[in-house]
């Protein structure tokens, strides 16, 4: 099995590329979706988050806006939250890998792959990238995003140029959607040949 780490900074099109891998029949572990599940209604870490951050949960699980406001500018609080979330996500990831152990290729979609040292758990890394002006336009089109929040998020992420330099593969998303899909298919074919699949 080849474990491919998929990452990219905010607004680069990583989720779209992950969906393309899934549409090609590749099993994809979506770390963000797993966090949503863990923090959703009756999620397994909701109780621990409420205990650590009282008033941030309810019947629908974690109030993400409230929790974000509580931890975003407070590194110690953010670290406390990560100490709850990361082990739970790691457990889900290991279960995913066990379920797909006979697959020739799987994808771990992890937004902060480099930032969290996640490269040790993958065989190769693909970075999804687009020019900064396209990234900015995409992110600021989101209804809950402000320029200030965008800059704060960028400050926590390794710069795109550094990610591209450290990647085994780069998929660009600044062209037509079918051009991106062609890159995904070419990469799958290349990795299948290497895996003997």
Number of domains: 1
Number of helices: 9
CATH superfamily: P-loop containing nucleotide triphosphate hydrolases
Proportion in helices:
40-55%
How much of the residues is beta strand, in percent? 5-15%
What CATH calls the topology is Rossmann fold
- What is the N-to-C order of secondary-structure elements (H for helix, E for strand)? EHEHHEEHHEEHHHEH
The CATH architecture comes to 3-Layer(aba) Sandwich
Give start-end ranges of low-pLDDT stretches.
none
CA radius of gyration is 17 Å
How many extended strands?
7
At the first level of CATH, the class is Alpha Beta
Strand order of the largest sheet: 2-5-1-6-7
Mean pLDDT: 93
Termini gap:
10 Å
Helical/strand content category: alpha/beta
How does the overall form come out from the CA principal axes?
Answer: globular
Mind summarizing the main beta sheet? 5 strands, parallel
Descriptive terms for the model:
53% helix, 5-stranded parallel β-sheet, alpha/beta, 9 helices, 197 residues, Rossmann fold, 15% strand
Q: Brief overview, please?
A:
The chain has 197 residues and is an alpha/beta fold. 53% of the residues lie in helices and 15% in strands. The mean pLDDT is 93.
What does this protein look like?
With 197 residues, the chain is α/β, with parallel strands linked by helices. It has one domain: Rossmann fold (3-Layer(aba) Sandwich), CATH 3.40.50.300. Helix content is 53%, strand content 15%. The protein contains nine helices and seven strands, in the order βαβααββααββαααβα. Strand 3 and strand 4 form a beta hairpin. The longest helix has 25 residues.
